[in-house]
Amino acid sequence: MAYIVDGKKISAEIKEELKEKVTELNKQGKEGVLAVIQVGDDPASSVYVRNKKRACEYIGIKSLSYELPQETTQEELTALIGQLNEKDEVKGILVQLPLPSHIDEDEIITSIAPSKDVDGFHPENVGALLIGQPGYVSCTPAGIIQLLKRSDISIEGKHCVVVGRSNIVGKPMAVLMLRENATVTITHSRTKNLQEICKQADILIVAIGKREFIDSSYVKEGAVVIDVGIHRDENNKLSGDVDFASVEPICSAITPVPGGVGPMTIAMLLHNCVEAMI
Ligand code: NDP
Q1: Is 262 close to ligand 1, i.e. is its CB under 6 Å away?
Q2: Which domain holds residue 212?
Q3: For 147-199, how does the pLDDT look when each residue is reduced to its tens digit (9 = 90+)?
């Protein structure tokens, strides 16, 4: 039976550590405000925004909310970000993605001051990650590193296969694993022999966005399997990109959905917000 990596427990530990750190920083007169911007009223985004604000409150960071209408223009959003960039008390700026299709997401991300980019999406932070310099790291991949380390799963020298190459998960994930001295293979929709490559992985990290795509035929016996995917069915039941029932019996450790990677994303966002206060 595989070890079930408990993201809920690990994220709760991290939140407690951060709460203590915020109390300490407050004693030194350091306060933090996170500005959270949502454009439109997509229900899933509203849930994410609410959870992020609640988590901030829990560890003692104030959040400012900007709920903008769907028809907000690129110029209006850029102007707001410009104002927040200038406000000293605002330490972090978070723009909930996806944005409506008439807004250029890349341009918006680039308009956030890199020092306030707690999502770690700004090209300057992405570049810093690539060359091993300090900067904010994308929260989901950073959370996965914490999951592995806090579960005593060694990374150095292991063959890690990352399935997916998105800017927010796959690519930064691969760079982080490289930084931890894994041997990394990145795969994507044009990869030939995906099954064969995945089967070589000691650590298989799946961020594909396709429900239960990876079954036991993709997994080497004894591998560690990290499932980033989140899918909600018509009965509100969550599942991942990995077919848990098929893979769990043959791997050595696996993250469940829900309760695996998901809770870590918010924990690492809080981590970045606390860093921004220092
Ligand atoms: P994207 O859709 O941006 O990227 C998916 C990646 O998977 C792409 O690189 C794509 O390749 C690749 N891919 C798609 N189909 C295949 C295939 N058949 N074989 C191999 N590779 C394939 O997704 P994200 O990275 O944003 O998210 C991935 C999943 O993780 C989603 O389910 C999302 O909901 C979830 N997620 C969860 C988070 C959490 O907190 N737990 C946070 C962020 C995302 P190509 O580049 O060639 O198109």
Answers
A1: yes
A2: 139-262
A3: 999 999 999 999 999 999 999 999 999 999 999 999 999 999 999 999 999 99
State the pTM of this model. 0.97
Could you identify the residue written with the tokens 């690519």?
171
Residue 111 CB less than 6 A away from ligand 1:
no
Cβ(242) – ligand 1 distance below 6 Å? no
In a domain, residue 268? The reply is no
CA of 21 to the centre of ligand 1 (A): 33
Q: Are residues 145 and 180 in the same domain?
A: yes
Both 82 and 148 in a single domain?
no
pLDDT at residue 120 in the model: 98
Q: Flag whether 7 is in a domain.
A: no
Kindly tell me if the per-residue pLDDT of 264 is higher than 90: yes
Catalytic residues: 52, 96, 119
What CA–CA distance (Å, rounded) separates 263 from 191?
A: 30
Total tally of structural domains belonging to the chain: 2
Q: How far is CA 165 from CA 52, 170, 189, 199, 208, in A?
A: 25, 4, 9, 18, 8
pLDDT by residue (tens digit) across 121-139? 999 999 999 999 999 999 9
5 part of a folded domain: no
pLDDT tier, 1 (very low <50, low <70, confident <90, very high otherwise) = confident
Q: What distance in Å separates the CA atoms of residue 226 and residue 249, rounded to the nearest whole number? A: 14
Residue 40 CB burial class (10 angstroms; 0-12, 13-18, ≥19): middle
**Could you give the CA distance from residue 144 to residue 95 in angstroms, rounded to a whole number?**
22
Q: Quick one: 168 and 103 in the same domain?
A: no
Atom index in ligand 1 nearest the CA of residue 169 equals 25
Ligand 1 closest atom vs CA 241: 32
In a domain, residue 249? The reply is yes
Looking at ligand 1, which atom is closest to the CA of residue 210? 32
